[in-house]
Write a structure and sequence with these properties.
Blueprint (H helix, E strand, L loop, with lengths): L2 H15 L8 H14 L5 H9 L3 H11 L11 H17 L5 E6 L6 H11 L9 E8 L2 H9 L1 E3 H5 L4 H7 E4 L2 E4 L1 H4 L2 E5 L12 E5 L9 H12 L2 E8 L13 E3 L6 E4 L3 H4 L20
Parallel strand pairs: 1-2, 1-7, 2-6, 7-8
Antiparallel strand pairs: 3-5, 4-5, 8-10, 9-10
Helix pairs in contact: 2-4
Length: about 290
């Protein structure tokens, strides 16, 4: 891969997915895109770049999906799910007692482990949610991983990563060497392909937004833009949950951290007044995103 080809791909990925690669990541592109090029009958990265420059829409989608990572597992990092049970849901139940409904967005749903972990957490609340309407929206860039999430089928290795055995037995059915989450929990998740770089106002507002291990891949201007738009999608008394390596501090005043609750944020009361200038959002397009995973 020549330096101009690498620079083209860096800009291509930044424009189409927000992925901001440093100057020394040629090895990553080669390891991800060479197999894709060969599968497409191309001789190498150079031919792939030429096809992209010619505007091959199918190849554009394949390249973006190949470069996004979908590393995830059930109850990943544990702490956010402790916050969900111990801090978020008690406040939401109290604040929404009159309307008896709650909306949750997993803005990087990947192959489904995070939204299903939330669904299991809600089911474990039992009678506290009787008569409540619960919506969990899971979005991702990759249609392929969304299809896996919809199916809810996982290998033995996948269910052994973070999933307590009692929940495996309670909510999954084993078929051969795979496990499928039960239909009731699958029905709790709505799946949509979405690109965080583009307008997501059509999703409506949420009581809780999980946007974990996504923004670490973006440059600062893109992070600011997304934070400011997320602030418009969360209720004034709602919650934003970020990954352990992510923060709003120094980027935007639209959210404030909750003391002693790592990764947990609330919108500021005067969100629009305190926001740092937002970068104009890219125009909407058919392909979509929310799935770069650490």
């Amino acid at each position: 891969m020549t330096p101009p080809e690498y620079e083209y791909l860096r800009k291509f990925l930044r424009d189409h997915s927000g992925l901001d690669l440093s100057a020394d990541k040629q090895y990553l592109i080669e390891s991800r895109l060479l197999p894709l090029a060969r599968k497409a009958g191309l001789s190498g990265i150079g031919d792939l770049v030429q096809k992209l420059q010619a505007g091959s829409s199918a190849l554009i989608t394949s390249v973006v999906e190949a470069m996004t990572t979908n590393e995830t597992f059930f109850f990943r990092d544990k702490v956010p799910f402790d916050h969900f049970r111990e801090t978020i849901m008690p406040e939401v139940l109290k604040a929404r007692a009159a309307r008896r409904s709650v909306r949750i967005w997993c803005a990087a749903g990947s192959t489904g482990q995070e939204p299903y972990s939330l669904a299991m957490s809600l089911k474990e609340m039992g009678a506290a949610l009787t008569g409540w309407r619960v919506e969990i929206i899971a979005t991702d860039l990759s249609q392929e991983v969304l299809e896996k999430s919809k199916a809810g089928i996982y290998s033995q290795f996948e269910v052994q990563r973070g999933l307590p055995i009692q929940l495996l037995v309670k909510y999954f059915k084993q078929t051969g060497e795979t496990w499928q989450i039960n239909p009731e929990l699958r029905a709790m998740i709505q799946h949509r392909q979405l690109n965080l770089l583009h307008d997501f106002s059509q999703l409506g507002t949420f009581d809780v937004i999980f946007c974990r291990n996504v923004l670490i891949y973006f440059d600062q201007e893109t992070k600011i833009n997304i934070f400011n738009r997320l602030a418009r999608q969360v209720e004034g008394d709602g919650f934003l949950v970020l990954g352990a390596a992510e923060t709003v501090v120094g980027l935007t005043d639209t959210f404030r951290p909750i003391p002693e609750r790592r990764g947990l944020y609330k919108p500021n009361d005067a969100r629009s007044a305190g926001a740092k200038p937002a970068i104009a959002a890219a125009p909407p397009r058919t392909a979509a995103m929310a799935g770069l995973r650490a």
